[in-house]
Amino acid sequence: MVSEAVKRTVEGTVLLAVGLPLWLFADGIETPVVTLTKAGLVLAVIGAVTLLGAAWSAVRNPGAAGRP
Q1: pLDDT in single tens digits along all 68 residues of the chain
Q2: Residue 27 gets which letter from DSSP?
Q3: At what angle do helices 4-25 and 36-60 cross, to 10 degrees?
Q4: pTM
Q5: Which long-range contacts (CB under 8 A, 24 or more apart) does 38-45 make?
């Protein structure tokens, strides 16, 4: 079993890895609902907050990583 902190770390990393390139490199692409740069920024921010939450959780409860 994988701990909750590891799951949240992977989730945050994936969101950040998808969001940053969209924010940085999708400037000229138009979509009908929302621009890809705004979507990328939102994904990157959510990913960063998720990573910070996972780090906070791991620091606050370091013994929980080995529990089932």
Answers
A1: 677 888 899 999 999 999 999 999 988 888 888 889 999 999 999 999 999 998 888 888 766 555 55
A2: T
A3: 150
A4: 0.80
A5: 43/15, 43/16, 43/18, 43/19, 44/15, 44/16, 44/19, 44/20, 45/19
